[in-house]
Design a protein that fits this description.
- By secondary structure, the chain is an alpha/beta fold.
- The protein is about 35% helix and about 15% strand.
- The chain is globular.
- The relative contact order is 0.22.
- It has one domain (about 10-370): 3-Layer(aba) Sandwich (Alkaline Phosphatase, subunit A), CATH 3.40.720.
- Helix 9 runs parallel beside helix 10 (about 255-280).
- The strands form two sheets. Strands 1, 5, 6, 7, 8, 9, 10, 11 and 12 form a nine-stranded mixed sheet that branches.
């Protein structure tokens, strides 16, 4: 088993639900085409945080905490991530990212396949843990156990009956979401199996909050709470290899100038606090974070926000990351726009999944991501 300084490598996935505006996160602020396309939501050059290389790109002013991590060499920015014929439906697009199947509906999530490889005999119900209500499709597959926790503090105070009731509510959310796409049989089989080790997981998590202390003060918002819970479980040493968290609200068809800065502040500060927390506990070297969203936004604003698009961005964060820009920033020249309105993708998202699975987790990614795709090399040091 591959180790990093004697510890198993751990993957933390952060899902940005709704479609993060990559073009207004890492901004081509010197481009006249950017200015012309975004008279309402565009960020003025004097407000942009310079990338550090004197080039054409800069960070949104609300992403200062991420910029600090980037400047320290701890962030790999994946530019232009996506896939051919990007789907603009939230549900279907997220389903594609969760299952790595753009052309058909799949019954298995990519992280569930990874969990099965990590724990083939389902010996540890905490091999994969999701924080937030409802189990993400990425962690769902027949025969795979993943534990879903709404809030660790509340969870620790619940009786077994109450915790089981919350679990059932999460499974009902899953059932309502996925029965239309994969059918009642598959969902029913999964739901029948997935509660098998629930009580064991509950007992293992119950005293985690009481065993944790930190000088890091997280903000009070969902993504900060979730990442704090990840830190608490990770530092408890319960054998979790995959963590999943979600941050919602990125579908800003309207009021983007107000919403985007708030969300970026919440996200980037939470990521910064999380890294500081792990480092305080000597628990950061074995962790890599991957931040993704289901699609980018349209190049032109709509007068108040931006509509669903393609050619988005992802972020890989950690102590062993070789920070910088990876892949190519999609061209913002009008003659290069996809369908006359979108950024083109420049690297397939399955190659980024494969990068993390193979280079960080030291696992064969082929069956996990359903194929072989171009990878990047974002690590200075990986498991050995």
């Amino acid at each position: 088993m591959a180790k990093i300084n004697g510890k198993d490598p751990v993957l933390v996935v952060v899902q940005l639900t709704g479609g993060l505006d990559f073009m207004n996160t890492l901004i081509p602020h010197t481009s006249e085409h950017y200015r012309e396309a975004r008279p309402t939501v565009g960020v003025a050059s004097e407000d942009v945080l310079p990338l550090g290389d004197g080039g054409d790109l800069g960070w949104h002013p609300a992403a200062g905490a991420l910029k600090e991590l980037y400047d320290a060499g701890d962030v790999a920015v994946v530019q232009g991530i996506g896939y051919e014929n990007s789907n603009r439906s939230h549900f279907r697009a997220m389903d594609i990212w969760h299952t790595t199947e753009p052309l058909k509906v799949s019954t298995e999530g990519w992280l569930a396949r990874a969990t099965r490889d990590l724990d083939p005999n389902t010996e540890n119900p905490l091999t994969a843990v999701s924080f937030g209500r409802g189990l993400p499709r990425a962690l769902a597959a027949p025969g795979v156990t993943a534990t879903s926790v709404g809030d660790l503090d509340q969870f620790g105070l619940m009786t077994k009956v109450e915790a089981e009731q919350e679990r059932q509510q999460d499974l009902e959310i899953f059932k309502r979401m996925y029965t239309p796409s994969v059918g009642t049989g598959v969902v029913g089989d999964y739901l029948a199996q997935t509660g098998r080790d629930v009580l064991t997981g509950i007992d293992m998590l119950r005293d985690v909050p009481s065993r944790y202390s930190s000088s890091v003060e997280y903000a009070s918002n969902p993504i900060a709470n979730a990442l704090r819970d990840v830190a608490r479980v990770h530092t408890a040493g319960l054998g979790t290899r995959i963590f999943y968290t979600q941050h919602a609200g990125y579908d800003y068809h309207a009021l983007e100038p107000e919403t985007h800065p708030r969300l970026l502040t919440e996200l980037t500060q939470a990521l910064s606090d999380f890294m500081a927390d792990l480092r305080e506990h000597d628990a950061s070297e074995e962790v890599t974070i991957m931040v993704f969203t289901e699609f980018g936004r349209r190049i032109k604003d709509n007068g108040s926000g931006t509509d669903h698009g393609s050619g988005g961005g992802a972020y890989i964060i950690g102590d062993h990351v070789d920070g910088g820009l990876y892949s190519e920033y999609p061209s913002v020249k009008p003659e290069d726009w996809l369908y006359g309105e979108d950024l083109r993708h420049t690297i397939d998202f399955r190659g980024i999944y494969g990068t993390v699975i193979e280079q960080w987790m030291k696992m064969d990614p082929t069956h996990i991501v359903n194929g072989t795709f171009e990878q990047i090399t974002p690590y200075k040091l990986t498991a050995a």
